[in-house]
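[job 0417] fold request received: glutamyl-tRNA reductase
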Amino acid sequence: LTAPVGIRERFAFASGEATAALDELRTRAGIVEAVLLSTCNRTELYLYPGSDAHLEAAEIVFAKKAGELVGGINQYLYRYDGSDSVRHLYRVAGGLDSLILGEAEVQGQVRAAYKLAESVPVHPPLAGPVIHRLFQSALAAGGQIRSQTPIGEGAASVASVAVELARKIFGSLSGRQVMILGAGTTAELVVKALERDGIGGLVVSNRTYERARDLAAKLSGNAVHFDRMPFTLAETDVLIASTTAPHPLVALDGFRHAMDGGRARPLLILDLAIPRNVEPEVGG
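[job 0417] inference complete; emitting structure tokens
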């Protein structure tokens, strides 16, 4: 059950969008309990009870977010009912349904999605007794999976896999210039994965300059404002993008302008964000 990145990014909800969607589902469709989980690999809506009318309302919300798609959205949707939906959430929270088996970030994402539903100002709360028990038990199960089975031993993350790919491509990252877009959890994991590489320099660019500065300092790096980021690309060997921006931060025109002086060495771009931070045309 998967879809290409160009489709997944069209279904991706930022926190504010998820809050608005949940509020709409309650006020317009009368949905009783709901959690909207949106990560780089999935967008899932958990409903209780799941009547046909509620499911139809959910599809309308997804269709509105995705916009017009050839063939419609149903070709990309999957549905679980009853115990199958419980089993699925347990697998998600435990990292068993992730692109990288056993990765731990998804458990925090599941928790954050539940907390967001809890925060929507409606009464009765969207995180009602059934959803509450479902998500708390799924999070507990995820913790048990990682602590009581070998899956948690040396589990990789999307960030660590990205860094390992860069190592394989360059042979070594020693002396290389690395830029990270974003300063959230994924960016922090990238920095952690780079600790042993002896990179030549690190630049972090983030919407909040202070967060970029604090993260860059962990490897004695530098922070740059978003508006100065393109001018730093010319000196970069590896760009790893991981922000939650709803639109590309590296556009083809800006990229070409930044590279006007030409490059004597390759630039590796690893875009870990959904929606993508880098326009696909940049790679062409």
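[job 0417] notes: The chain has a mean pLDDT of 93. The domain at 158-283 is CATH 3.40.50.720 (Rossmann fold).
[job 0417] exit 0
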